[in-house]
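A student in our group prepared the protein record below, which I am reviewing. What it holds is a sequence and that sequence's fold in token form. My question to you is simply how this chain folds and whether the tokens agree. Do not assume that whoever made the record got everything right. I have pasted the whole thing underneath without changing anything:
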Amino acid sequence: MKLSKLTAAGALATLLMTSATFAQTIGPNGETATPSQEVVVADSDVQTLKDGGYKAALVWHDQSDFVNAVTEGATDEFTRLGIEVVATTNAGFDTAKQRSDIETVMTKEPDIILALPLDPVASAAAFKEAVDNDVQLVFLSNVPSGFEHGAQYASIVTDDLFAMGKQAADALAADLGETGKVGWIYHDATYYVTNQRDNAFKSTIENDYPNMEIVAQAGISDPARAEDIANAMLLKHPDLAGVYVTWAGPAEGVLSALRANGNKTTKVVTLDLSEPIALDMVRGGNVAAIVADEAYELGRAMAASAARGLLGQDSPAFVVAPAVTVNADNVSEGWMRSLHRDAPESLTK
């Protein structure tokens, strides 16, 4: 899960997403989304980049299958363009470590940095040296406070947030025959990524499925509390047909609660790939579907946006990659589309 603190501007996205008429992803400062497939480096420009002898660094917030897929997408695009990746770092969700990583990376004199800033305020100071040295910055999901598109960074790239929430609602509705009572467990924090995904699920159920009703809702900030929240929800509403959970980590706790209650009928949908959640799904358990982003495509688009900057070409301020619904029937295909690797053997057997 790509989780970190976000600027107060994220509240704007949250407010917009609560509107029943709002049906698209917007950036942390209200930017219009551009599909990632529109961000490309033309074949005619490749030789110019190869002749430039450019270098790139990847400054990541953490290590995960998701980050690995983003890295692979970026690296493959850089290879196509003749750009050398000279450093890849992992801050382990430690803001101070990320600042140190940036300082270390800058000694390698990169022309490009791709990163997910952990803390908008602290990262603004951390990335100042890169800005002062005309490094092309492309950010994954977050953006440092006060940074302006075109002046300090080339693009923000993230998921198609509305599509992810909507596809989760559509998948749950399809599994339930478009009827039944639903629980909604959302991320209780001001973070435009999860806020938009969560509210897209809610608005889709309310607007598109008149025979489905959200009868219980609970906010969660600590994934460790998911099982307790689910137990309380099920105690009050034992007839829940389905539950939406904001991402896969807390969904594991909800699944534990269902199993502890001997509940084999309440269906679960969540976001972001997880082997334990997917294993329940392919075994015909409570999990109906998982909606994920195309992480490999995120990396490719980030690399392409940065390379366009080296060519003096503008890229959109806010770029989104497609969402993919993964269920028991397409788990192998879905894993490949999202993470650009084979699904775990436990799922394909």
